[in-house]
């Protein structure tokens, strides 16, 4: 028996998708879905950069530069963001699947299939939040879908506010879906499964907070001189 990769079915009919994954001896149809996910991620990152999302610090230097210097900087910044989209997609699909294969003894391609389903949630999140940022002129720290808005009332530390801004309602949905699949695909107990998943997301939240805290666009600006 084989499992045919279907992202929407994995999200809308998880019981059926899980049953087929459990019984499957091989997984097919992953290649095309991966290409589409990388392409969508690429487009979303490019569009968000075009609208200045996450590049507010660099945009503030427009009065310090000539038009040519500023436009050249924007192109370099766009290139960096597109490379980031490749890293972001690979982290959530290939690296996460490797972690789950290593720690939970889940067949690697089945873990990749689960991550493709879960990553679709993150793409939906990026699309919706980017649109909200543009329409309401917000930034990541003010993301209405994250816990950062609440943390700013209680915490003055900028790093931890970025950390809580990285934790969103969409992430909770993604973790729930991921836990549902993995707990039924591994022989490890449920506590270990949940711990491994949370540690992976904890790493992504800390990494996101660190990148926002050091303000990569400002480093980029200093590098340009």
Question: Can you describe what's shown?
Answer:
It comes from Metabacillus sediminilitoris. The protein has one domain. The protein has eleven helices and two strands. Strands 1-2 form a two-stranded parallel ribbon.
State the gist of this model.
The protein has one domain.
Order of strands across the widest beta sheet?
Answer: 1-2
Q: Estimate what percentage of residues fall within beta strands.
A: under 5%
> What's the assembly state of these chains?
single chain
Helix tally equals 11
Tell me the domain tally. Answer: 1
Rg over CA atoms, rounded to whole Å, is 19 Å
* Basic shape: globular
- How far the N terminus sits from the C terminus, by CA atoms, comes to 59 Å
| Portion in helices | over 70%
Number of strands: 2
- What is the residue-averaged pLDDT? 87
Structural class: mainly alpha
The description of the largest β-sheet is: 2 strands, parallel
H/E element sequence: EHHEHHHHHHHHH
Protein name: Yip1 domain-containing protein
